[in-house]
Amino acid sequence: MGMSAKIFYGNSSTGSPLADENMAIVFLDYQYDNTGNAVDQMAIVLKGSNESWKVIGRADNTVGSSPDDVKFSKDTITYMGKYVTGRDSRSNPTGNRRFTLKYTANSVTFVKDMR
Known about the structure:
Blueprint lengths: L1 E10 L10 E10 L7 E10 L4 E7 L5 E8 L3 E8 L11 E9 L4 E6 L2
Antiparallel strand pairs: 1-2, 2-3, 3-4, 5-6, 6-7, 7-8
């Protein structure tokens, strides 16, 4: 069950396998269990134009809620996201980190956080 979505647009840099193509990433919060007590985030990466967009891949279980400050490069997309620090409740994270997704012409992989 999808709960909320945020979309960001950008452009890959010269030299990329997807060079000079428009890019978009959608972060989708979703509930994956029957208890109603767990929410996860997936990232869906697209390429294309205003007339036609193609999904090149998705990464499930990405980390860093409330994504913002998204940056596109030749083979990665980075974003700032919230995370739970030692003093936070799980529903109110206060930490911020930069997270990375790596993409190719037909796949997307969550890599790591960039502290």
